[in-house]
Specification:
This protein has 275 residues and is an alpha/beta fold. The protein has a single domain, classed as Rossmann fold (3-Layer(aba) Sandwich). It is built from eight helices and seven strands. Strands 3-2-1-4-5-6-7 form a seven-stranded parallel beta sheet, with helices on both faces. Helix 3 runs parallel beside helix 4. The chain binds nicotinamide-adenine-dinucleotide. Nicotinamide-adenine-dinucleotide binds next to helix 1 and helix 4.
Length: 275
């Protein structure tokens, strides 16, 4: 059955791939993004392949923007059946320069060098807002369409950092832990009205957000990039396409008794102790 599926952050790498895969299943797709052109480009690509899609500007941090996006979705595609909360990311001001704090860090005065003590509340706030509030607010707006209807669900995007925090990125790790926790909370909260709530926890996917952290300008891996591969039993980065089958399953009635789960898609990263 064709459903109306709203994806936030779908002008980006991972969720544009999911939007296209869901469109191929015959669903009507609302591609939402802060960047209108990015959203429109993905919608146009879907239409070019014979699918049904609209590109809509929406800021996941502004209720008014989400309300007007919902109005457009409802008018053009009908009520929302599925919401994929894909918008998310990190901020450099919430990131330390080194994985471990050491005595000599106190004497380092290099431009841009950041210890735990230099973390800027603005960077922490940005990251918590984008990932956590940016999941909660679109859910408040779009889940109203789902109440009392059948086959509706919400899919959040968490991360490996939610299980065990990665070094250097305390804000992003905490914010994604909040997304996982909220996924469970909301699954319970909505369980009596038939709305399922689940999440993907992608491992490491080489995208624009993390490319500079994981690869050198010549394409070789940075030390951190190599550490990730060494810690991933399957020995490679994820490809956006690796997220498709789990997404189709969680958005389909095939998973009708599945709610409140956070599924790692990580080549075994979260199962491996490193020894
Ligand atoms: P991306 O940067 O390619 O896409 C994110 C999109 O979100 C961008 O198009 C951006 O314009 C949009 N966006 C940013 N702020 C917004 C706002 N306020 N309102 C609406 N849209 C906004 O990132 P991606 O790698 O495709 O990541 C998608 C999701 O997956 C994110 O939640 C990310 O945290 C998560 N994730 C990514 C990885 C990875 O390895 N890339 C791993 C785990 C989780």
């Amino acid at each position: 059955m064709s459903k109306t599926i709203v994806l936030t952050g779908a002008g980006g790498v991972l969720c544009s791939t999911l939007a296209k895969a869901l469109a191929k299943e015959g669903h009507k797709i609302a591609v939402l993004d802060l960047k209108k052109e990015a959203a429109q480009k993905v919608a146009d690509e879907i239409k070019g392949e014979g699918g049904k899609a609209i590109g809509v500007m929406a800021n996941v941090l502004e209720k008014a923007s989400l309300e007007s996006a919902k109005e457009e979705v409802n008018t053009k595609l009908g009520p929302c059946d599925i919401l994929v909360n894909g918008a998310g990311g990190n901020h450099p001001l919430g990131t330390t320069s080194n994985p471990f704090f050491q005595m000599e860090d106190l004497k380092t005065s290099a431009e841009g060098f950041k210890t735990f003590f230099d973390l800027d509340p603005k960077g922490i706030e940005f990251t918590f807002n984008l990932n956590f509030l940016g999941t909660l607010l679109p859910t408040q707006i779009f889940a109203k369409d789902m109440v009392g209807r059948k086959g509706c669900s919400i899919l959040n995007i968490s991360s490996m950092n939610a299980f065990t925090p990665l070094t250097k990125i305390p804000a992003y790790s905490g914010a994604k832990a909040a997304v996982s926790n909220f996924t469970q909370w909301l699954a319970v909260h909505f369980s009596k009205v038939g709305i399922r709530v689940n999440a993907l926890a992608p491992g490491f996917f080489l995208t624009e957000q993390n490319r500079a952290l994981l690869t050198n300008p010549d394409g070789s891996l940075t030390k951190r990039g190599q550490q990730i591969i060494d810690q991933t039993p399957m020995g490679r980065y994820g490809k956006p396409e690796d997220l498709i089958s789990t997404t189709l399953y969680l958005c389909d009635d095939a998973s009708s008794f599945v709610t409140g789960v956070v599924i790692p898609i990580d080549g075994g990263f979260s199962a491996y102790s490193g020894v």
